[in-house]
Design goal:
Elements: E1 3-6, E2 9-13, E3 18-22, H1 24-27, E4 34-38, E5 42-46, E6 49-53, E7 69-72, H2 77-83, E8 93-95, H3 101-104, E9 117-121, H4 122-129, H5 141-150, E10 153-156, E11 160-163, E12 166-170, E13 179-185, E14 188-192, H6 215-232, E15 236-237, E16 246-251, E17 257-261
Parallel strand pairs: 6-8, 8-9, 9-10, 14-15
Antiparallel strand pairs: 1-2, 2-5, 3-4, 3-7, 5-6, 11-12, 12-13, 13-14, 15-16, 16-17
The structure holds zinc ion (ZN).
Length: about 260
């Protein structure tokens, strides 16, 4: 299991398996080529808090995605959490970058983390509510709504510190209210980009996913956030990257960011 320090926090990269789907499902159009991605939720020990960033697909592939996505795994997020020396009850906070099915699974009902508060941006919830029936993002809405009533879910309104050393920043484009996470502080920070730049291919600012809600915002935010990571020499954690999910980035003359494995 990969782990490193960022400020006074310890960061561990967990794993919830690999999805396989037609490229058309991510880029739009009829592309039949298969595309693969990992799910790598991030566990951060920050003082007395144990914070999980995103929550994989959950116990099984959600019903609405059966036939479109295939989920391959021998071990899941809970197994990896245990390998890290923790049980589900030890998690104190779960930060959801946005409400897509591959990021929220284990945080929904029944909540797998009985002692955790789950944090979502209000804008992400509002957008998901407006999605058509059967959309992967829309499916999370009822559970989040109940979570609000039952007290395991909290809505955020913009940027801020969730716990000391863990700061969310709204960087929309992939979805409204999509948040990235800075771990640590100042010059000793790491960046979790979530789906703003989820794998190495997405370090090219001009690559736009058909599923991005606002492609121009995605492009602008990707450049701004990765430029800041380069300036801080911060490790960048890539949620869907099958190999080398932790990289440092350098912007090349062609405008694309290049990845060096950490
Ligand atoms: Zn994703």
């Amino acid at each position: 299991m990969r782990s490193f320090e960022a400020g006074s926090a310890t960061v561990r990269i967990l794993d919830d398996g690999v999805f396989v789907t037609d490229a058309g499902n991510l880029f739009g159009g009829q592309k039949k080529a298969k595309i693969k991605g990992s799910m790598r939720p991030v566990l951060v020990e920050a003082g007395d808090n144990l914070v999980l960033l995103d929550a994989g697909f959950g116990p099984e592939l959600p019903e609405i995605l059966v036939g479109r996505y295939e989920l391959r795994r021998e071990e899941d997020l809970m197994d990896h959490l245990e390998e890290a020396g923790y049980g589900a009850e030890d998690v104190t906070h779960v930060v959801l970058s946005h409400l897509d099915a591959d990021h929220v699974g284990w945080a929904l009902e029944p909540p797998s983390f009985p002692n955790a508060s789950v944090f979502v941006q209000r804008a992400a919830l509002e957008e998901a509510k407006g999605m058509p029936e059967g959309d992967g993002r829309r499916e999370a809405v009822p559970a989040v709504g109940r979570g609000l009533e039952e007290g395991w879910c909290e809505l955020l309104e913009g940027d801020g510190e969730v716990v000391p050393g863990i700061r969310v920043e709204v960087r929309s484009g992939h979805s409204e209210g999509h948040q990235v996470v800075w771990i640590g502080s100042g010059e000793d920070a790491a960046l979790y980009t979530a789906d703003l730049a989820p794998a190495k291919i997405w370090l090219d600012p001009d690559l736009i996913a058909g599923v991005d809600t606002d492609p121009e915002a995605a492009r602008r935010n990707r450049i701004e956030v990765l430029t800041e990571a380069e300036e801080k020499d911060a490790p960048v954690i890539l949620y869907h990257e099958p190999k080398d999910p932790v990289v440092r980035v350098r912007r090349g003359e062609d405008g694309k960011f290049e990845a060096e494995p950490v």
